[in-house]
Specification:
2 domains, globular, alpha/beta, six-stranded parallel beta sheet
Length: about 350
């Protein structure tokens, strides 16, 4: 088959681009021909107050950078290019309503192919004016919708009419497989990790508030924070100073390249996701690829990817004492090795090949 993927791909940074790259590789390994219909620009800078939108990476497959979603004159160019390539299947990456006008317009004018929306989120974590209308406009012309968690499916049912909902199927977020091989922890000594693009809903403030409690049990514990801040990092730096936890916190507020990711996870024996809202998370998929247990909020789709007490621990949302208690329990009960074994077994069932088969065989 000829499979077109519309949305961000390398050199764009972030989980959606990373997901698209791995999915394309899964299709290619199954013998299909791939083309990214990539963004020329993704967001205006005012909507992306992080340090960078692109890096120096190169997509592993044919890529045409044509679409700037907020510039309508690029929509027709994208439609023309997709129709000229004549795909059998067009997959659109969906996660925020900002892209609704462009995607809905393009979907209505691409001819002679199956059109699938791969939905990472349904309702965005931030407020968007007219989100439901944009969602309906983009999703209506799709032949099929694939959501990656039960949480997303529930959001779909709550916010869209039945004629759209009935086109949806349940998928999953595979575990990243570029990190296979040695997952040995290097010089592990009470090191925990907060990783990825830092937005308010991801609850870094909750984790920082838990640190004084954690420190009473493990004075030498280090929290590593690695990721660019969507907004102003001074808020977190002030919280660190005010709580007098500077000696226990290492900050690396910037985009972390693929080459650097491995070292962060190998240096940490626990990844923390204190999210205040969630569907699923690429950070869990990355952590599990390094056999790294996860402590996460008991919310949304996160609960579908973590077996409490087996591959990680689940805690109440925005509850610093409960989060601190979970970290302390993890170390006191020496959970690392048993959880690593369970994660190794779990990730063998959540592969990109399985997702490819799910997409292709309706």
């Amino acid at each position: 088959m000829k499979i077109a993927l519309l949305g961000p791909a390398p050199p764009f940074v972030g989980g959606i681009s990373q997901f698209a790259q791995h999915l394309a590789q899964g299709f290619a390994q199954a013998g299909h021909q791939i083309c990214f219909f990539n963004f020329k620009q993704q967001y205006p800078n005012i909507l992306f107050p992080a340090d960078r939108q692109e890096d120096d990476s190169i997509p592993a497959h044919l890529s045409q950078r044509l679409l700037t979603p907020y510039l309508p004159h690029t929509w027709s160019k994208t439609i023309k290019a997709i129709n000229a390539w004549q795909p059998d299947l067009l997959i659109v990456s969906w996660w925020v309503p900002f892209f609704g006008p462009a995607f809905g317009y393009i979907f209505r004018r691409v001819k002679n192919c199956r059109k699938l929306i791969l939905a990472h989120n349904i309702i965005p974590h931030e407020e968007w004016i007219g989100a439901k209308s944009l969602l309906r406009y983009a999703f209506k012309p799709a032949d099929e919708i694939l959501v990656l968690s039960h949480s997303c499916m529930l959001d779909l049912k709550r916010n869209l009419p039945n004629n759209i909902v009935k086109k949806a199927r349940l998928g999953f977020h595979p575990i990243y497989d570029t990190h296979i091989g040695d997952t040995t922890k290097n010089n592990v000594q009470h090191r925990i990790l907060f990783f990825g693009l830092i937005k308010a809903y991801k609850g870094l403030d909750t984790l920082l508030a838990a640190m004084p409690i954690i420190r009473t049990a493990f004075p030498d514990l280090k929290l590593m924070i690695a990721g660019s801040v969507y907004g102003n990092k001074s808020v977190y730096l002030k919280q660190i100073r005010d709580m007098d936890i500077t000696a226990n916190v290492e900050t690396d507020f910037r985009y972390i390249s693929e080459e650097e990711v491995a070292e962060y996870f190998r240096k940490s024996d626990l990844c923390i996701l204190p999210y205040k809202s969630a569907t699923q998370s690429g950070v869990i998929a990355t952590a599990f690829s390094y056999d790294t247990p996860v402590i996460a909020s008991n919310i949304g789709g996160l609960t579908e990817y973590i077996e409490d007490g087996v591959t990680g621990l689940l805690v109440p949302v925005d509850d610093p004492p409960a989060l601190a208690a979970a970290v302390i329990r993890f170390y006191h009960q020496e959970m690392l090795k048993p959880m690593q074994k369970a994660i190794s077994e779990y990730k063998a069932t959540k592969t990109w090949n399985e997702l490819v088969n799910l997409i292709l065989h309706r």
